[in-house]
Design brief:
Length: 191
């Protein structure tokens, strides 16, 4: 089956310019043809949808490139099927008494930031991209184990300091850690 660029853009959520950038970077293969006559196949579609969904989770494109390096089309298809938001709706369960169910956020919900006072200038520096466990590197020649349910883990933010160097900060870190991270970013970050 072939697709137009507009169809790839609609399903992946990626704009035209981003798709062209990912083709230049080698994350997406080149289409057959040029301009409005360009044709995209199933491989293009599942790759673009995978990248779009990972970017929507806040994972940096370099981490995505590392994660999907060496994936075959079947791996992209499994990822897309597993993360497909178009699930059939189930009837709502009967309400349970609030006292018998401990309050807990769903595993996919973002972890709220620790309560803090009004943001200061140094807090503004701590706006890096969140990184999920899925962005961890997989050794060459090995497929990432993505089918296993992982326990809830700390949520990290990665801040680029210099080319090839980053600072990782746990979202639930103590205020002193957040302050030190802000000082490091003020001195070395933002490049």
């Amino acid at each position: 089956m072939t697709y137009t660029k507009q169809e790839v853009m609609a399903r992946s959520g990626l704009p035209d310019r981003t798709i062209r950038n990912y083709i230049r970077r080698g994350l997406l293969p080149r289409p057959v043809g040029y301009g409005l006559a360009a044709e995209y196949d199933e491989d293009h579609m599942v790759r673009a949808v995978t990248i779009g969904r990972l970017r929507a989770e806040g994972i940096h494109i370099d981490a995505i490139a590392d994660q999907i390096a060496g994936w075959k089309t079947s791996q992209f298809k499994r990822f897309v099927a597993r993360t497909n938001p178009e699930q059939p709706e189930e009837p709502a369960p009967a309400p349970t008494p609030v006292a018998s169910v401990p309050a807990r956020a769903p595993a996919s919900a973002p972890v709220p930031a620790p309560a803090a006072s009004a943001p200061t200038h140094s807090d503004e520096a701590l706006l890096g991209e969140p990184v999920e466990r899925a962005s961890l590197r997989t050794p060459k020649g090995h497929e990432a184990i993505t089918q296993a349910a992982l326990p809830e883990a700390p949520r990290w933010r990665i801040y680029s300091l210099l080319s090839g160097m980053a600072l990782m900060v746990d979202d639930s870190a103590a205020p002193v850690v957040q302050r030190i991270a802000a000082e490091i970013l003020a001195k070395y970050g933002g490049h």
